[in-house]
Every structure is written in C-alpha cells, then in structure tokens.
Amino acid sequence: MTNPFQFMQQVRSEVSKIVWPTRREVMLTTVMVFIMAALTAVFFALVDIAIRGGLRGILSAFG
Questions:
Q1: Whole-angstrom Cα distance, residue 7 to residue 13?
Q2: Closest among 40, 20, 43, 21 to 30, alpha carbons compared
Q3: Which residue range(s) make up the domain with 46?
Q4: What residues in the chain have per-residue pLDDT under 70?
Q5: What are the Cα distances from residue 43, in Å, to 29, 30, 35, 63?
Q6: How far apart are the C-alpha atoms of 53 and 61, rounded to whole Å?
Q7: What is the pTM of this model?
C-alpha cells in the first residue's frame, strides 16, 4: 500500500499519458455519429414501412 503522496504522484503520471483528441477529431467523430444515426433511422423506417405494407396486404387478402 502506498502513502497518499505517492498515490497522487502515480495518478499525475498516469494522467500525463492520456492522449486527448483534438477539436477536429471530436467534431469529425460527432458528425459521423449523427450521420450513422440518421442512416440507421432511415433504414429502420423503410423496414417498418415494408413490414407494415406486407402485413396490410396479407390481412386484406384474408379479411
């Protein structure tokens, strides 16, 4: 077990090893996430429309 002073030195040492992303990297990945979310939403909306149309067709054939 280490004393608090050594612990704080180790924490500072580990924190200094962190590589933080640049503002450009953060903006780029944020835009990519929004684009992928929009594409996923469009995909599932189209799948929902297709399933709904199929079910309406089946139900109207038997109804």
A1: 10
A2: 21
A3: 20-62
A4: none
A5: 21, 20, 12, 30
A6: 12
A7: 0.67
